[in-house]
């Protein structure tokens, strides 16, 4: 299945992104998923376009670390951020962007899908994705004093963490 | 002994000091994680004014075990044991979802024997019934209706005896395998199920009378924490919680797997998306799942239950005893695990709480580069922080119960 089938007018996004100087990098499909890869700068524009085109259901947001040992950890395109949406029925559409470790930051899509809130916090927590304009960016599955981002490939599975004191219970009521 | 006592005292003191205090008439209130309903996995920090909640902060992660990190360094077949610990209330549904994802990555999903698919549906739907019974029973108990809780726990205990007969131990039984299921049903299983199912229907009917016609239960659930369909979509709700809000989403219907399109079943939808609808949708799903199991048993045809492919299924014992290649295949599978070619897959199944998605990336090898779990409970729990404010403190527990946030799946 191509993007054109999943979303009837894919060309309007191409035109929109060309005008902004960030044409879509690639499109394709893998089992269960139709994907569009865009440049980092076109992340929010493309997400808003998908939202307008009927992808109202948020499904998932995650990061993939493609780093291989013995290669530079600063290689371009090391991290792939993927936003998965449901486009009616069983079709799942993914918006992707590739980032290098030094520029692992993206604007938040919580204004379009509020459900992205926790998923972006998780990407920050486990991969160190710095989400800008996020309403409440803090760790979610791990505790605030955790050192590093454990799902990055350069975080060894056996790494130990320092013992920490009992932290504050909540951000609520702290100002 | 003395220093330990002293330290404990200091710690308790610090916890009290850290309680949020927003000033004015509002009060910080911490629910859990040591709470019979939050089950050690969730802490809800509330800011309350009288009985009304002003702000809520749902904190998860206490059960985070690094599933995804572990899966990246484990062979694909061994992860099957770990994946059952995600939603430990219905482990077989997780295992089936993961097995399907790996089979799709291997490109063999169309070759899985039909009998194996039927058996996966049978144990999967029974697991869904068990999950819903636990969720509804806990909800009833949280509202003081302990008789409904005992009825449902009794039904669940009988149901698990059936599942044990078919699949082995409750947790950590590698019944679902890559390529099918481990073994066929025992001879007397179908008759045992036929003896069990009328009893389950009767219990569902009785609970429906006990709770559905109970004015107190209706009062405590109607209009509480209502979510409209657009909000449910934007928050990524799936499964019974989304269907209660009127969102017609069910992976079994939208993108059928395990030959789900062979079965005739309805997807119940709610109208208002309140706690009552969430209760009613799950009650109806109990009946629908039972319908599916009955149809799947009727459609069982003789045949193998495991694919014959030595690249990822260990050859049978009789073959291994006579063929050298089969011994070599087993040794390779046991020491390295199955080889999966380069590729990626997003595979979704309908678990008891919603869309359970696996996003697996392989670069060609015996370990995945990435094994992402899209856990339905995680998205559902995120909604709680948003929906609880303006409601009463006494509504937190039943709402949390009906969202059925399962710690293992939410925190991974």
Kindly estimate the percentage of residues of chain B that lie in beta strands according to DSSP: 5-15%
The average pLDDT value of chain B, as a whole number, equals: 86
Poorly predicted sequence stretches spanning 5 or more consecutive residues of chain B: 1-19
Q: Could you report the average pLDDT of chain A, rounded to the nearest whole number?
A: 81
Give me the Rg of chain A, rounded.
Answer: 18 Å
Tags for this model:
A: 175 residues; 20% helix; B: 412 residues; three-stranded antiparallel beta sheet; 8 strands; globular; disordered N terminus
Task: Give a structural overview.
The complex is a heterodimer of chains A (175) and B (412). Chain A is an alpha/beta fold and 175 residues long. Chain A has helices at residues 3-6, 11-19, 43-52, 116-127; strands spanning 26-30, 33-37, 57-65, 79-86, 92-99, 105-107, 130-132. In chain A, strands 1-2-5-4-3 form a 5-stranded mixed β-sheet, covered by helices on one side. A two-stranded parallel sheet of chain A has the order 6-7. Chain B has helices at residues 2-18, 67-72, 76-83, 91-106, 114-142, 146-167, 189-212, 215-221, 229-234, 239-244, 251-254, 275-298, 317-322, 324-335, 376-387, 396-403, 407-411; strands at 27-31, 43-49, 52-59, 176-177, 180-181, 343-351, 354-362, 370-374. At the A-B interface, strand 3, strand 4 and helix 4 of A face helix 1, strand 2, strand 3, helix 2 and helix 9 of B.
Sequence-ordered SSE layout with sheet pairings:
The complex is a heterodimer of chains A (175) and B (412).
Chain A: H1 3-6, H2 11-19, E1 26-30, E2 33-37, H3 43-52, E3 57-65, E4 79-86, E5 92-99, E6 105-107, H4 116-127, E7 130-132
Parallel strand pairs in A: 2-5, 6-7
Antiparallel strand pairs in A: 1-2, 3-4, 4-5
Chain B: H1 2-18, E1 27-31, E2 43-49, E3 52-59, H2 67-72, H3 76-83, H4 91-106, H5 114-142, H6 146-167, E4 176-177, E5 180-181, H7 189-212, H8 215-221, H9 229-234, H10 239-244, H11 251-254, H12 275-298, H13 317-322, H14 324-335, E6 343-351, E7 354-362, E8 370-374, H15 376-387, H16 396-403, H17 407-411
Antiparallel strand pairs in B: 1-2, 2-3, 4-5, 6-7, 7-8
Helix pairs in contact in B: 3-4, 4-5, 5-6, 5-12, 5-16, 6-7, 7-12
